């Protein structure tokens, strides 16, 4: 008697710009994994961001949110683009994504950045300084200045509110300390405690959690301006980096200079029942619709999804397949090649299915 395969429900939100292009490749790779590793994925597709506005006058339509709240995992491409620049601030595509993160309770945004010897050769920075970088940014995702109230724009002034509660800082600090324990035992907390009240609280709370609960982890604090400089000049000094929503957003795009492209950086946002998985990059309107986007950031985000649903072997196979494509091609334009987005995705999917890889 055959037993039913493990089945995961996936809400797929392609979004805008290059979002649908890279999401299609991540979905292709997930399907290849399901076939190779004997599980099933039940996928439903929903509009979000500008696509949500066009379909339903809402960047996070009710039906999209409901599907995400019901799913085992949510995969999102990217949102936004110049065609929606004129809409009301609260209806912007990006606001839809922020609401989704909040409603999923996805407060812990994991953004790994790894640079092999081969990638370092392509880095705009000095290869000998970046080769071997392996850092993890743990970004607080559902608080801070992107969410704080009051937030207002009038004819004569505008303001946002940077607000953090002790509880919000404690829970993200614990996630970061746990990762530091699993990795090198080192954690860097990044803030602007010399001028911001929210950062002064951040620093005190992170220090207390470290001293009380994780005395085995070596904790250092850096101001964000110094941290930005050091990410570029001495990236290997970092292992796990914990920071707030705004600083983590900026530092992770900055860290894309290490491999030399945003097209390689994945993310997982955890904390609620279902995780949200998305590439770090945006909708890249400058290259959208032409098959120029690198799908590897999305595909590596799919590997993080597989880890989150405990399909670790499949996640490893995806990472190995990405390595083999990085070694042998086909490469997309941001990595110096001329391969179409779909050709890169197909090569990863083929490598996942290949019997030469070490999976059953
Ligand atoms: N998570 C999300 O949905 C995000 C959405 N956005 C939105 O995206 C739109 C464009 O924002 P930008 O500031 O231009 O940032 P972006 O991340 O879309 O693009 C920045 C640069 O990186 C390149 N790039 C991005 N992804 C790439 C990929 N997969 N392969 C090759 N090159 C890639 C783009 O061509 C561009 O030159 C805006 O509406 C912004 O609000 C921005 C960041 C995150
Ligand atoms: C809501 C997004 C546009 C913010 C962003 O840039 C990001 O999360 O990386
Ligand atoms: Mg960003």
From TrEMBL:
Site (Important for catalysis) found at: 146, 192
Pfam families given in the database record: Iso_dh (PF00180)
Pathway stated in the Swiss-Prot or TrEMBL entry: Amino-acid biosynthesis; L-leucine biosynthesis; L-leucine from 3-methyl-2-oxobutanoate: step 3/4
Required cofactor names: Mg(2+); Mn(2+)
* Residue ranges of every copy of the Isopropylmalate dehydrogenase-like domain listed in the record: 9-348
Positions with a binding annotation for NAD(+): 81-94, 282-294
Q: What GO biological process term is on the record, naming one?
A: L-leucine biosynthetic process
GO molecular function per UniProt: 3-isopropylmalate dehydrogenase activity; magnesium ion binding; NAD binding
Cellular location of this protein? Cytoplasm
Cofactor mode of binding and number, as noted:
Binds 1 Mg(2+) or Mn(2+) ion per subunit.
- State which Enzyme Commission number(s) the record gives: 1.1.1.85
Asked if the record carries the keyword Metal-binding, the reply is yes
> Which UniProt keywords are present, listed alphabetically?
Amino-acid biosynthesis, Branched-chain amino acid biosynthesis, Cytoplasm, Leucine biosynthesis, Magnesium, Manganese, Metal-binding, NAD, Oxidoreductase
Provide the binding site for substrate.
101, 111, 139, 225
Catalytic function, reaction form:
(2R,3S)-3-isopropylmalate + NAD(+) = 4-methyl-2-oxopentanoate + CO2 + NADH
Instruction: Identify the residues that bind Mg(2+).
Output: 225, 249, 253
Q: Which GO terms describe its cellular component?
A: cytosol
Q: What class of enzyme is it?
A: oxidoreductase
Task: Report the sequence similarity comment from the record.
Answer: Belongs to the isocitrate and isopropylmalate dehydrogenases family. LeuB type 1 subfamily.
Function description: Catalyzes the oxidation of 3-carboxy-2-hydroxy-4-methylpentanoate (3-isopropylmalate) to 3-carboxy-4-methyl-2-oxopentanoate. The product decarboxylates to 4-methyl-2 oxopentanoate.
Record text on subunit structure and interactions: Homodimer.
Name used for this protein in its record: 3-isopropylmalate dehydrogenase
Species whose genome carries this gene: Rubrivirga marina
């Amino acid at each position: 008697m055959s037993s039913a395969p493990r089945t995961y429900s996936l809400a797929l939100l392609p979004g805008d710009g290059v979002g649908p292009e890279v999401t299609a490749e991540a979905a292709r790779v997930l399907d290849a994994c399901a076939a190779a590793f004997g599980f099933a994925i039940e996928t439903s597709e929903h509009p979000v961001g500008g696509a949500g506005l066009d379909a339903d006058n809402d960047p996070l339509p009710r039906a999209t949110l409901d599907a995400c709240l019901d799913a085992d995992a949510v995969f999102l491409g990217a949102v936004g683009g110049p065609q929606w620049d004129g809409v009301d601030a609260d209806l912007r595509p990006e606001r839809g994504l922020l609401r989704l993160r909040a409603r999923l309770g996805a407060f812990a945004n994991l953004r790994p950045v790894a640079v092999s010897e081969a990638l370092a050769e392509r880095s705009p920075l000095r290869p000998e300084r970046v080769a071997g970088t392996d850092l993890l940014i743990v970004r607080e995702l559902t608080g801070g200045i992107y969410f704080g109230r009051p937030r207002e724009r009038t004819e004569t002034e505008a303001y946002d509110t940077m607000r953090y509660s002790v509880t919000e800082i404690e829970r993200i600090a614990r996630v970061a300390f746990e990762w530091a324990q699993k990795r090198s035992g080192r954690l860097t907390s990044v803030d602007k405690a010399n001028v911001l009240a929210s950062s002064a609280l951040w620093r005190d709370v992170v220090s207390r959690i470290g001293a009380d609960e994780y005395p085995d982890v070596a904790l250092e604090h850096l101001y964000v301006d110094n941290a930005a400089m050091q990410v570029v000049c001495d990236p290997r000094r970092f292992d796990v980096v914990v920071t707030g929503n705004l600083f983590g957003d900026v530092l992770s795009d900055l860290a894309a200079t290490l491999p030399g492209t945003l097209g390689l950086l994945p993310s997982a946002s955890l904390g609620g029942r279902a995780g949200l998985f998305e590439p770090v990059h945006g909708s890249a309107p400058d290259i959208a619709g032409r098959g120029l986007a690198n799908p590897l950031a999305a595909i590596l985000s799919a590997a993080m999804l597989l880890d989150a649903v405990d399909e670790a072997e499949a996640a490893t196979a995806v990472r190995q397949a990405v390595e083999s494509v990085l070694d042998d091609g086909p490469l997309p334009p941001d990595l110096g090649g001329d391969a179409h987005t779909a050709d890169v995705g197909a090569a990863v999917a083929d490598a996942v299915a290949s019997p030469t890889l070490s999976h059953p």
